[in-house]
Amino acid sequence: MIRYSYSEWRGRRRLRTVECSFPLGKAPETIFEDGHMLERDIASDVGTLALGVDWPKPIHSVGAGFCRSQRKAAMEAAEKARVPLELDGKGNAIFHNREQRRKVLRWRGMHDNDGGYSD
To answer: φ and ψ at 86, to 5 degrees?
Structure first.
């Protein structure tokens, strides 16, 4: 089950947001709660779509990470290249926002085909 955010809107103002669980790909666009219609709020799910703004929870990426034995050398090389690399104890890359992820992936010679919009 995946948690999805739904918000009640008045014009452009968000009145409230609730989270509901649905199977992957089965979340409806609108739900009704207490007689009020709430619409799916993707921006609340991912935090924000702007570059450089932190996500509510950081992403731990195994694919963009390093082996534990390479962790120290990777951090030194990233610092030398002025890349904001952050690794956890297992060597997984930690991303706090899209801009940081873009810089690290570019430095590693990797590419996100989705552009990060399915976070």
So the answer is: -130, 130
Q: Residue 77: its pLDDT value, please?
A: 93
Please report which helix (H) or strand (E) contains residue 103, including its range.
Answer: helix 98-108
Residues 6+ apart with CB under 8 A from 68: 89, 90, 91
Closest Cα partner for 92 from 67, 57, 58?
A: 67
Mean pLDDT by 10 residues, the chain (119 residues): 84 85 87 90 63 67 90 92 91 88 90 66
The DSSP letter of residue 55 is P
Cα–Cα–Cα angle for 45, 51, 84, rounded to 5 degrees: 110
Q: Which residue has the tokens 């703004």?
A: 53
Locate tokens 């609108």: which residue?
A: 30
Q: Which helix (H) or strand (E) holds 101?
A: helix 98-108
